[in-house]
Design goal:
The protein has 9 helices and 4 strands, in the order αααααααβββαβα. It is of the alpha+beta class. Helix 6 crosses helix 7 (about 125-140). The model has no long low-confidence stretch (mean pLDDT about 95).
């Protein structure tokens, strides 16, 4: 099973186990809001445009709220069914690029909804490799707003560097933990930050991610 599909299935299993009103790292979203977001992202590009165009945001919020208020099991099953037949992401290679990291990050958003350190799932090795590959290609974009450079270290892997030259912080952790930091979920990421106190504080305050 491709990693994107594997993570989609795992996310949906987690959503059903948690129920519709569990907290997520995308506060104030609950799990029902997260599921509704995923459905709109894949099935309603006309509505999902509100994620990028502020004038369309109210429509997106209304439609997401409507979906989130509907039948929970039907909503999760829609997420599980994957992209609609007309979507290019039905093609395996495109699905891998567009959805692998999306499913991994939102799976962790649901699992770590309280934002507190705690038990972590055992991430499949294939997922970890896919995440590391994605980080290598996207790190410059993810850390483009950081005022200090970063050196990402995962066990047994070559370092990934990003951000400005000069001052830097070394971030050590498993691939999924590094991914969460890169997506602005530092408070929930199990990573070690090594650098001067000033540089570490600067990285902690940075606005990271694609948006």
């Amino acid at each position: 099973m491709p990693v994107a599909r594997l993570e989609r299935e795992a996310l949906c299993d987690t959503l059903l186990a948690l129920g519709p009103d569990a907290p997520t790292l995308c506060d104030p979203w609950r799990t029902r809001d997260l599921a509704a977001h995923l459905v709109l992202r894949e099935r309603r590009p006309d509505v999902a445009a509100g994620m990028f165009v502020s004038a369309l945001a109210p429509r997106l919020e209304r439609e997401q709220a409507r979906l989130a208020a509907g039948d929970w099991h039907r909503l999760v099953n829609t997420v599980r069914s994957g992209p609609p037949g007309w979507s290019p992401t039905r093609i395996g290679k495109i699905d891998a690029v567009v959805n692998t990291v999306e499913m991994v990050v939102h799976h962790e958003d649901a699992l770590r909804g309280d934002g507190l350190p705690g038990a972590r799932r055992e991430v499949p090795e294939r997922t970890a490799r896919a995440v590391l590959s994605s980080l290598r290609s996207s790190a410059r974009m993810m850390f483009r707003r950081s005022e200090v450079g970063v050196r990402l270290l995962a066990p047994g892997a070559q370092p990934i560097t990003a951000g400005p030259e000069g001052r830097s912080v070394t971030v050590t952790g498993e691939p999924v933990e590094l991914l969460l930091l890169a997506y602005g979920r530092m408070r929930a990421a199990d990573v070690t930050l090594d650098g001067t106190p000033e540089d570490v504080d600067t990285l902690r305050a940075a606005y990271l991610g694609l948006a």
